[in-house]
């Protein structure tokens, strides 16, 4: 289509497929360079206990500052990378960066937290999962307990027996697993029994209505008491306001909270100073 040849009353329909194609292509062409040149990078969001003032871990979250498309959120680029088999290399890269980062934090002598990485379903059952974990923890000389691996039910459900086997093997090396976005997938309670996980992260969609919605509040309360009696750690995602923090501390003895109320995902360079402020300045939260 050339604008000069278009009749002036002609309606040109926008075809989203044309844009999707080029957007997809540009991501797929650029992903390797993006990893090498740190166009792809990680930001870190704390999971904290408001009662003990302890930071349990920082979750590593991917960002892409694309040279042409600009800053991209993972919701935009991860599905495309996943569909095109690119999340194997990207997850290797994430694990490598996370291990390097936690080793740097540990060297400061101030790090009392773990680091959490998101693991896509296809990666869980691949042979490189355990290999990459062990290679990088050895390379940076860090105890395997510092790595927490977040998986979702939805991503492992299609290959559940193999996923469980792989996870049990990896857990035997000292790594821990968290079940991410709990409540949004199949949420079959049988998975709570079968999966070798130590932490359950309750999805943001349940906390959004708290404390105003009685239904949401009851659901959160029920999930918390279930998780407590099963000896899981519980993290509540997406906590944005003080009323939600108060509700959760009245509900659980030591709730773990991840959300904008305490911190948005931070650049690595801001993590140590966040930890100091969080520990010392109780009144600012
Ligand atoms: P997730 O693992 O459930 O991560 C939590 C998401 O909720 C993050 O979005 C975080 O920024 C956002 N969030 C946290 N607290 C709040 C809050 O109080 N309010 C609101 N509105 N949002 C909050 P983000 O960083 O955009 O990541 C979205 C999803 O992309 C992640 O969900 C995860 O599934 C995926 N993802 C991110 N990084 C990676 C990665 O390195 N590998 C893989 N496989 N997936 C990743
Ligand atoms: Mg996560
Ligand atoms: Mg989550
Ligand atoms: Mg979520």
UniProtKB/TrEMBL annotation:
Lineage: Bacteria, Bacillati, Bacillota, Bacilli, Bacillales
Name of protein: EAL domain-containing protein
UniProt superkingdom: Bacteria
Location of the EAL domain: 24-279
């Amino acid at each position: 289509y050339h604008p000069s040849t278009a009749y002036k009353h002609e309606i040109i329909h926008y075809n989203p497929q044309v844009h999707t194609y080029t957007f997809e292509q540009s991501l797929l062409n650029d992903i390797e360079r993006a990893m090498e040149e740190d166009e792809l990078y990680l930001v870190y969001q704390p999971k904290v206990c408001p009662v003990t003032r302890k930071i349990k871990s920082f979750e590593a979250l991917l960002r892409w500052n694309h040279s042409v498309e600009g800053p991209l959120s993972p919701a935009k680029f991860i599905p495309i990378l996943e569909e095109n088999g690119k999340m194997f290399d990207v997850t290797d890269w994430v694990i490598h960066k996370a291990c390097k980062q936690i080793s740097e934090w540990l060297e400061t002598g101030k790090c009392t937290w773990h680091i959490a990485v998101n693991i896509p379903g296809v990666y869980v059952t691949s042979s490189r999962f355990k290999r990459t974990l062990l290679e990088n923890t050895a390379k940076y000389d860090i105890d395997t307990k510092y790595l927490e691996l977040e998986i979702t039910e939805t991503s492992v459900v299609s290959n559940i027996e193999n996923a469980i086997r792989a996870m049990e093997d990896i857990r035997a090396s000292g790594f821990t697993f968290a079940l991410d976005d709990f409540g949004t997938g199949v949420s079959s309670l049988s998975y709570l029994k079968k999966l070798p996980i130590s932490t359950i992260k309750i999805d943001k969609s349940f906390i959004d209505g708290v404390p105003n919605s009685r239904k949401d509040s009851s659901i959160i309360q029920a999930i918390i008491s279930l998780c407590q009696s099963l000896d899981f750690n519980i993290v509540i995602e997406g906590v944005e306001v003080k009323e939600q923090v108060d509700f959760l501390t009245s509900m659980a003895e030591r709730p773990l909270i991840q959300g904008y109320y305490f911190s948005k995902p931070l650049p690595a360079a801001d993590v140590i100073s966040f930890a100091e402020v969080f520990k010392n300045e109780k009144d600012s939260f």
